[in-house]
Structure formats: structure tokens, C-alpha cells
Amino acid sequence: MTTSDKPTATAETISVVSVIRSPSLLIASWFLSGLAPVAPGTAGSLAALPLVAVVLHMLPLFWTVSLVVLLFGLGVWSASEAGRRWGKVDHGAIVIDEVVGQLIAVAIPFYLLGDAILSLPEALLLGFVAFRLFDIVKVWPADYFDVHSKNGWGVMLDDVFAGIWAGIVVAILGLALY
What is the Cα 27 distance to its own chain's centre? Predict the structure, then answer.
């Protein structure tokens, strides 16, 4: 644990009420899903799936990429604010990074392969499993950002790269199974 990971004496207590009252905390916790008592990262990834399904079903690639960029920016801001308020840069309740990573992990194979090769439900399932694996394992460069960038950017970037790796693996798997 690095110094920036240690809780500070001024860390605010996390409560549902305090999160609901703060737009940055509400976004960082992805509408309270990060407050799950067990496996908040997995809860955040699961909570992202309805958004991912709707986005991929309704939006063309350009608008999906635009949404990823917007969510990434909101994530840097909200993760920075939540980390400061909760006294830990990458606090477990911060799951906006999982939302962005999950969207990337499913969007890559969905747009590359199309639904003739990989249906949306298949992409959601495989993308979820692959993203959780890569988010836990932290393959380069995700591990670099996880260790060396103790700020909102690092919180977001490690999951962006986990999402990219997961998306590539799911796309290859989709091609192999086709």
C-alpha cells in the first residue's frame, strides 16, 4: 500500500445520503452500485451492463466513442473528488472506471465483429467475464497506471486498458468460434 492509498484522518464517512447529495460521488459510485458490501468492482461492472446494452443497441460507433470520452472525463473528475473525500485515491466504492472499462470491453468485439458473429447478449456475457479478469490481473499497461498514477487519471486509465485487452480477447474468441 502506497502513502496515497492509506486512508487519511480527514476521510469522510461513506453513507448513502452523502453519496446521493453529491453529483461527483454519485457518478464515482455509479449510482450507489460501488457501495456494495462485497465485490464493489463486480457490482459496478454489472450495474454498467444495462447502459452498455442500450448504447450498443441504439448508437452508432461515433456516438459510442463520444460517450466513452464523456464518461472518461466525468470519471477522472468524480474519481478524483471521491478519492479526496473518502481518503483513498482508488477507493473500492469508486466504480465509474469499471463502467468505462466494461463499455470498451463489449463495444470492441460488438463493433468489430457485428451481431452476425457475436450477438449482443454473447458480447455482454463474454465482455463482462473478460473485463473482470483483466481488471483483476492488470496486464500492461493497466498495471503501470494502477501502481504509478495515484490520481483520477490512473484510476480511469487502468480500467480503460483492461477494457481494451478484454475487448481484443473477446473479438478473437468470437472469430475463433465463428
Answer: 12
